[in-house]
Design brief:
CATH class of the largest domain: Mainly Beta
Structural class: mainly beta
Radius of gyration: 24 Å
Strand content: over 45%
Distance between the termini: 27 Å
Strand order of the largest sheet: 4-3-6-7-9
Helix content: under 10%
Largest sheet: 5 strands, antiparallel
Shape: globular
CATH superfamily of the largest domain: Glycosyl hydrolase domain, family 43
């Protein structure tokens, strides 16, 4: 049987209502409402070398076939756009051709143009072998996971001119507490100052921010966290909320990991000293995620060292206060081109005997997320399909810099919350959105 080869060409279909100038029209549409718009976003950077052009066709009974074209060798745009598309169901075919106009990759799916609604559909193209063949529909195509979908109305949480955090909100830390979804996040203030905010939700989409402002503030001038506190992972253990936040005496000094407890997630009592400090190798550390297996806590955190860049480390504890760092740290460091100088900010889930991690990279202008797995929580294997999400996968171009992932299981599916560092194209304007998927 012929092997299906997947490659990294992303085709995202955005169906949006609203009037726009028509560039491709169909005179025989049988409806007067032609306010739909379909845009195919092409990841030209990762297109196969033998692909020269991309052809797109929209068809349905009673209407002329709409055609779109892109020449990957010369076009500067990354989109094929159909304006003024009638509402209703259309059949989309996308063919990738070589220089001899032979179809070498092909894909097709039905798309529904709904008035007043924006929908994201993603198409997988597979090799045809000889110019013909069937297709499979996935979120993306490549060796990456095939079920990741960026929420079409991102972001779901912005600052809304709150006096706290004039640079926005970020670093989401999610905890599902019975039927309530709770988020602790970072308020980003001027001069690097930061505080911990809190929000709740029933569905993870509509959020209510704590009206009294931050729930965790820096300590007094004599304390170790006098300059900054940043939202850290929270676990509910024996009815008590336990947060492992990051703090420092000054925003420009190296950070340590602190510990605080709460009965309601809003009113916190700090432990007086850091529970994990950076050592000679870890110049600065920041808590990223925590899980508990049997009676052991595993905390995954970011460390920075000029020699290694931004890495992922792990420590274990039985009480949450006394920690033992793994002797093999760092457990993850940048060793792939897309990662630049960072493989860090890990978020981890554990189920069915397997540890699964999502982490981010650190590469100027090209941030994204990768996946790794482990059988013991210490030795990790990166997915060959990394990165599985970058700015080109974001819905409606809402972010150019996706950072700080937080992975959680929602019922039978998963969500990956993250923040943008440049919402609405404004640097340091942080806001929070999410991806959803069914099979991690």
């Amino acid at each position: 049987m012929k092997r299906i080869i997947r490659i990294l060409l992303l085709v995202t279909v955005i169906i949006a209502s609203g009037c726009s100038r028509s560039t491709i029209t169909s005179p025989n549409n049988n409806t007067s409402n032609t306010n739909g718009k379909i845009s195919l976003r092409i990841d030209k950077t990762n297109a196969p070398q033998n692909v020269a052009t991309v052809m797109a066709y929209l068809s349905r009974a009673g209407s002329d076939t709409l055609k779109g074209f892109m020449d990957l060798r010369s076009d500067t745009t990354a989109d094929i756009t159909f304006d003024s598309v009638a509402v209703g169901t259309w059949h989309l075919i996308v063919n990738a051709e070589d220089a001899n106009e032979v179809v070498v990759y092909s894909g097709q799916t039905d798309v529904e143009v709904v008035e007043g609604t924006t929908t994201s559909v993603n198409l997988t193209l597979v090799p045809t072998g000889n110019g013909t063949g069937n297709i499979y529909i996935y979120v993306t195509w490549g060796t990456m996971n095939t079920a990741w979908i960026d929420y079409s109305n991102n972001p779901v949480l912005i600052n809304n001119s709150n006096v706290w955090g004039p640079y926005g909100i970020g670093n989401p830390k999610i905890l599902i507490d019975n039927n309530n979804i709770k988020m602790w996040f970072k308020y980003q203030d001027y001069n690097g100052l930061a505080y911990v905010g809190f929000a709740t939700s029933k569905d993870g989409i509509t959020w209510s921010i704590n009206s009294n402002g931050p729930v965790l503030l820096p300590g007094d001038s004599t304390s170790w966290d006098a300059g900054i506190v940043t939202a850290g992972p929270v676990i509910k253990d024996n009815g008590i909320f336990k947060m492992f936040y990051s703090g420092a005496k000054d925003p420009h000094l190296s950070a340590s990991i602190g510990f605080a407890t709460s009965l309601d997630g809003v009113h916190w009592t700090k432990y007086p000293y850091p529970v994990i400090k950076p050592d000679n190798i870890e110049y600065s550390i920041n808590a990223s995620d925590i899980i508990k297996i049997n009676n052991t806590f595993y905390i995954y955190y970011t460390s920075y060292n000029p020699a290694f860049g931004y890495c992922t480390d792990v420590a274990t504890s039985t009480d949450g206060i006394n920690w033992v760092k793994y002797s093999g740290n760092p457990i993850l460091k940048a060793d792939q081109q897309w990662e630049g100088i960072g493989a860090y900010s890990p978020t981890v889930i554990y189920e069915n005997g397997l540890f699964e991690m999502v982490y981010m990279n650190y590469k100027d202008g090209n941030f994204g997320f990768g996946k790794a797995t482990s059988s013991n929580g210490f030795n990790w294997s990166k997915s060959p399909g990394n990165p599985f999400f970058t700015k080109v996968n974001a819905s409606n171009y809402w972010t150019g810099k996706p950072i700080y992932p937080c992975l959680r299981k929602f019922n039978n599916g998963y969500r990956l919350y993250y923040n943008s560092d440049d919402y609405e194209g404004i640097p340091n304007n942080e806001s929070i959105g999410f991806l959803s998927f069914n099979n991690f």
